[in-house]
Design goal:
Rossmann fold, 8-stranded mixed β-sheet, two-stranded antiparallel ribbon
């Protein structure tokens, strides 16, 4: 195994974006690829590490960039400022995600027919939105994602298989939103599954999350279970 990494510049609406790409050059190519959508903090080491872990599993991992030039927020206030334009304009967000998908498909190491996406928190919303647009990709996986629909995709058929992994006690997307998402995915004709972890809050995959008052707490068991579920899901949709 020899994991190779590099940054990849691409653009959307005059914004230069910088993704992080990882793959194992000892595996036969072209490789199935997985986009990794970041939290509100930006394309930080957390998602770059996920891209490396995907490469170890035999996929090409691509940590996408929504904010431009790999920008990373310095804390909750700046993170919220960076995320806000995309929450207020979901069509802009969807266009930026489509640009990342197109970029990955064009990479020489990637099998353009076998692409999936995964995301964390805000990134979970991102990959669900990508699926909601009817994008042609194999599957999307959301970890403790935001679940509110965008309002501009009603009536579109979801082609991607959908895996959602969520904490039952997540204050940012409570159980009524989980039920609403299930109904939405059913109406869109999606092949979907939702795994809900009891006694689990938001950001359960992030070892640095330890703010119960804010609703973000790491949970080792939910983190392990969700990663195992992801591996089974990717094996199903990409192989």
């Amino acid at each position: 195994m020899a994991i190779q990494t590099r940054t990849v510049d691409y653009s959307h609406e005059n914004t230069v974006l910088t993704g992080f790409f990882a793959y194992d050059d000892k595996r036969p190519r072209p490789l199935p690829a997985v986009l990794v959508a970041h939290t509100w903090a930006g394309r930080d080491e957390f998602v770059c590490d996920k891209a490396r872990k995907l490469a170890e599993l035999g996929y090409a991992g691509f940590a996408l960039d929504l904010y431009g030039k790999g920008a990373i927020g310095g804390g909750p206030e700046e993170n919220a400022r960076l995320m806000r334009p995309f929450m207020e304009n979901r069509a802009l967000l969807q266009g930026r995600l489509a640009a990342a998908l197109e970029t990955v498909r064009a990479l020489p190491e990637v099998d353009e027919r076998r692409v999936a996406a995964m995301g964390f928190c805000f990134g979970g919303l991102c990959v669900l939105d990508l699926a909601r647009t009817g994008a042609d990709l194999r599957g999307v996986a959301s970890f403790h994602g935001l679940l509110v629909p965008p309002g501009n995709t009603a009536g579109k058929r979801i082609q991607a298989k959908v895996l959602v992994m969520h904490g039952f006690d997540d204050p940012m997307a409570p159980p009524d939103q989980i039920l609403a998402l299930g109904r939405e995915l059913t109406e869109a004709g999606a092949d979907w599954q939702i795994h809900v972890y009891g006694h689990t809050l938001h950001a359960f995959t992030n070892p640095k999350a330890n703010d119960r008052g804010f609703g973000t707490v790491y949970d080792e068991t939910a983190n392990r279970r969700s990663w195992e579920s992801l591996k089974a899901f990717l094996s199903e949709v990409l192989n």
